[in-house]
Structures are given as C-alpha cells and as structure tokens.
Amino acid sequence: MRRSPELTSGQTTGTGKAGVGEPAAGPRAVETRTVGDDVPRSVTRIGPGSTWGSTVGEAWRHRELLYFLVWRDLKARYRQTIVGAAWAVVQPLTLMLVFSLFVGIVLHVPSDGVPYPVFAFAGLLPWNFFSQSILRGSESLVGQTNLVSKVYVPRLILPVAATGSFLLDFLISFVVLGGMMLYYGLAPSAEILWLPVVILLLLGTTIAVGTFLAALNVKYRDVRAAVPVLTQVWFFATPVAYPASLVPEKWRLLYDLNPMVGAVDGFRWALLPTDTAPLASMAIAAAVVPLLLLLSLAYFRRVDRTFADII
Amino acid sequence: MSIAVRAEGLSKQYRLGISVQGRLSEAIAAAVQRPVKSLRSSLEDPGYLWALKDVSFEVQKGEVVGFMGRNGAGKTTLLKILSRITEPTAGYAEIDGRVGSLIEVGSGFHSDLTGRENVYLYGAVLGMRGNEVRRKFDEIVSFAEVERFIDTPVKRYSSGMYMRLAFAVAAHLEPEILIVDEVLAVGDLAFQQKCLGKMRETATGGRTVLFVSHNTAAVTSLCQRAYLLEAGRIVDSGAADAVVERYIETTQAKQLVPVRERTDRAGDGSVRITSVEIADAAGETISSSSQVRVELTYESDRELRQPRFLVTIHDENYHWAFYRLDTDAEPGLPDVLPARGTLVCVTDPINLTAGVCGLKVAVWRAGTLADQVEYAGSFTVYADDFYSTGRVPDRSKAVGLIRHEWGLSQ
Predict the structure, then answer these.
(1) What ipTM does this complex have?
(2) Domain count, chain B
C-alpha cells in the first residue's frame, strides 16, 4: 500500500544540473554543504522507500548533531542537581555495597580470585552503562516526538545519542574503579590490551538493543513497561553479581549467547587479575553482536519511514 | 533559470483510526487475518484518506511560491514530504539545494538549557555546522532581541521570546530552499514584520522560498506565484494575487451554500447542524456595540446526552478566531437535549471594528466530533459611534474596540 511499483528505487542522486530530471543510479549523496562551500551540487530525490544509505549514511553525515544531543543530555541531566555528575558514581557504588554485603558476605559467592567489592563494581560498570542506555534509548523516539515529526533529523541518531550520554558516566565510574584497584593493590596486566575489544562488544550490544527497542516503542508502547522487566531478567543472565564459572557447563553455550556475558566478564578479565579467561564467551559475543546490530538496523530501517505518521 | 523543486505525482495516504498504533496483541491478530484482508484492495477501504493526491509542480530557483488552502487541504503534509519528515506513498520530488524547513518553530529546543545552548542545539538540529552557528551567533541573538536573557534557561522565557529565538536561528540557516509553514503567527506584529522582511531578504538573495499560509496578505506581499490546495489536490495556480483572490472567492461562495446542503463537513454525522443564523439581539443591523444572538438548529436520530456545541467567530479569511461561543465554557444548557432543536445564544456587545466576520460551527457528542462545518456563514459588522466621538478605527487598524480613559499622571 505504501509503495508504488514503478518507484521502488527510493532516493537516488543525480549530479549537476543535467541530473535534475533524470535520477542517476548509485548511492544517494544528500547535500549537507554550507552555502558557499565548493562541494559539487547534488539533487535529493524524495520517494517511497528508504535505502540503507539513507538510514546509516544520513546519520553519519549528521554526526555533529549527535555530539550536540549527547551534550544536551548531559547538561540537562545534571543541571539543578547538587552533586551533579557524582550521581554517575553514587548508583554503582551503592549497588556494589549492597552486593558485597548480601552476595559476597552473606552468600559467600566466589569472585574469580579478586576481592568481591572490586569484582562487583567492575561488573556493575558495563552493566549500568548497558541498562541505563537501553532504557533511555527505548524512549529516545517517543520521548522526542517533536524531533521526529516536526523537523528532519536522521532518526537513527536519537537512540545512539541516548547511549552516548552514559559514556561519560561510564568514564567517571572508571576513575573510581581505578581508585578501588589501587586500594586493594590490584594492578592490570597485559590483558588490558583487550579492553578496546571488550568496550566495542559492550557498545555494539547497547546500540543494537537500544535502537531496536526505540523503533519498536514507536509502534508498540508495551515496550515502555517491558524494558524494566527485560533489564531485570537480563541482569540475572549476566555475570555481574556472580562469576560466570558458577554456570553449569551444559548451560554454558546458551548462557554465552547473551553478548553481555562476554562484555562484562571480558571487561573484568581485561582489568583485574582474575583467575579466568573468558575468551570463549568473548568470541561468541563477537559473532552475536554484529548479527544483533544488523537485525536491529534492518528493523529500524524498515519502520523509519513510518515514524512520523504513527508516533 | 533552473529548477529548485520539482514534484511529480506526489501522493500521501493515511490510515484513519487508531489501528496503525497497535499493540502487540493486535499485530498478532492482524498477521493471522492478513491472508483474508489482502483479498480486498486496501486502497478502496474507506478507512484510508489521501491527504495528498497527484500533486505536481515546479519551482524555479529564486522564486517565492505560496501554498494556500484551508485546514486539512494537505499543505502541511506537502511540506513534511518536501522536508523529508515523512515519505510519500507514491510519486516523487527532486530538490536541488540545501533545504531549511520550519514546520514548527522551536522543535528541538530543550527547556532546561539556556538560550545560548539552545541556539547551538537547534542550529545542529536544523543541520547547521557548529562554526556556522558560532559565526552568526551575535546576529541571531540581536535579531531575536534576547541579548539580556541569553544565559537564562529558556523555560523562564516568555513564549514570545522563545519563539523569537527559535525563528532567529532558523532564519539564519541560509538554506538555498526555505520551507516555511505558517510560522508568522509567531510573536507580536513588529516581529512578524521582521520575519517577513528576513524572508524577503532570503528571496532576493536568489534563494527559493516555499511558503504555506492562510494569511492572504502575507502571501500576496511575499510571493510571486501561488498554488491553491483543496482536499489534497492542486486546484488552482498562477500569480499570487489572482490565486488569493480566487481563494477568498471560493471561501465566500461556500458561505452562500446553506449549512444544511453543505457536504464538506467533518465528524461522525450522528448530529447534523442544519442552520446557523446570527443577528443583532435587538433586531437592528449588527454594529460594533451590538449584542448578537446566534441561533443554531440541529437534528439527530436520538436525544443528545452531554453534547458540546461550539460557534467560533472569525475574521474574513478565517485566519484568526475572535470569539468562541462554547456550551462547555458558559453552561446553561440542560444535560440532555431533544433529538431536534434550536439553540439560542446571546452575547455581550461584540466590540469589533467594522468588517466582515466568518462563522464556524461544531458539535461534539461524548467527546467525539459529531459534526463540523467551516465557513458556515458570514456577517458584516457596521461601524457605529462606539466612543461617542465620531472617531473609530477600521479593521485595518484594529480588530477590537475597548472603551478607555486618558489622563495625565499626578
């Protein structure tokens, strides 16, 4: 119903004045130049159906907006608060204390050969980043309807920006983790070189899940109620408060399909002198994350063109 | 000259009702029903509406073109398609140049941020580069006349300041093609003039402006050419003055058709307004000091429980509503009305300057729009000696009249 059969090509580009009447084939290059710049002129073609290029490429061309949206979220989040960005640390620190008391001391849960408080805190860092980002990401489209239906911005930017603002919280907590490691006399070893890989896994999972939930939320507001439930279940399926080694071997493969296992366990392993090497979980995550990203983007792209009509 | 915007058969279909906005359970049910549904042609389904149908036009570079039409004629849908906010169902448009669109001024402002921060944020939302905003920052702030408050959060701004700042950012976007939707209702008259001036400047700078409005004066003063949209189609085009004239004519022609015979009505039809008449309450001609008496006749197939009737009195071109006569705002009607009847409403003196006024009527039943007729009629207010000095302004100077006393302070 939305697509007329002879016009499925979507947005293509013609270059130069000759291209005005005749849309040329090939990837679309949307004009983002400033007046007066020496960039070749291009014609934007608007028609039914969007392309991969228009979803991902447009977002990339507007990356400066991404920066401003992240900056806006940070400013708005900590304005009119007393301790400001310290809240980024208060939450994981409190949870770490609670876990240390009930899980570490009362339940005697093992902690991969490092003191339980450091173990829990190092798990909470990536976990909090993930859970806060997907919660905010899932609301990023329906919570900003004016950016969806009243003005043109590449919508993919919105859920990605929601993730971005928590990166700073993540970095602040990182400093606190450094302090704790110093206090317990724990030094990272050569495994720290794996940190960028682990963070990529974490970012990939977060963006994939956040983007998918954001798009789904536009159509099904059930998402709003489902996300807290999802986060709770996911928390227990991820080795944050307990080590992955407690999971029975026969369930291990299924367990590792959760990419957050590789991300959280890998994060801890890269920084702390733990007695495990979660390379299997990380390898599985490295395969799952691109797949998740692809599926999530595919869904986002499919519903992107209807957002303004149904939001 | 070369072409800046070319639209070819642009069409946009919307589904009526709330079924688009489903829940998961509905989606599952729909998936089950789909094989059955696809047997019928969904396009014939009365639950669909063509907000825009086969709209084709060309705009040359440097032209200022107006799009006119009544509410629901498809103007905003057209602009949303050209701004890439929504996609056409069929047809395509080609746009040569950077587009700046102002569908709603200030979409993207964040109330907790200061004016300064919002200028950068909104600039980025509209597609400006950071250094571009930085370069024009002072100009933007002085255009908006908010220098003193630039470091105050915009949530403490008056709505006028807020809109001025937003328009100022957008006006300095310097797009090659500027798309403007009815934003001149922003701020006070002086600022509106300033905005019009800025747009005129944009146009004379060789850039293209697509301007949507039902402010006929703004269209004639700004545009060379205009298109008239009606029910999603272009029904007229040509020189702006001529199109505006015909637009006013059709509006007036509609008013000559008795309300009972009008077919362009909205609502579910469970109540029908069959006539609306307005007269001076004392039986004289309507003048500035008149109390008016409105008689509204309706019919339905059953009695009306908690209905809401609304009569609005507009200016000649239906750009502004002067008064709303609302049964919810001024109680007095019984909770249950008979299935057929005539309501009578008497007002205080209307205090309007001499000129033509238009009427619009609507009725709701339990919160659902049952019937609505725009351009339901018109009446002329004649001048009288309102101030008893023989000096009264006419409609071009003021809309309302108010008695006032002057004196010297102390």
Answers:
(1) 0.75
(2) 2
